[in-house]
Prior knowledge:
Number of domains: 1
Helix content: over 70%
Oligomer: single chain
Number of helices: 3
Order of helices and strands: HHH
Radius of gyration: 23 Å
Largest sheet: none
Shape: elongated
Strand content: under 5%
Structural class: mainly alpha
Number of strands: 0
Amino acid sequence: MENYDIVKNEYTEEELIEIAKKRIKIKRELYSHIAAYCFVNSFLVFIYFIIVGDFSFSVHFWPIWVISAWGLGLLFHVFESLQELNFKYNVRAVNKELERIKKKLDVE
């Protein structure tokens, strides 16, 4: 039977390069999302203050809807990225799932 253990003590140069590329891609996507969130929401707040004309918040602060809804999506993206970047957790989760599958299929 094949050894399904994902944890290795040594990786080839190509494997390390692939892992590094994946991690860089995840980080860049997250940073781009954060930058877009900050830029767009700053622009919306700027438009709000131009329309209202003062800083008294006398009119309903409508950008809060976009800020909070998009912020929730961004929060989920941050959690997902952190989980993917945590390599040890991923390896443990894969190994645990493989053990469940082997147990279920009676494979030893």
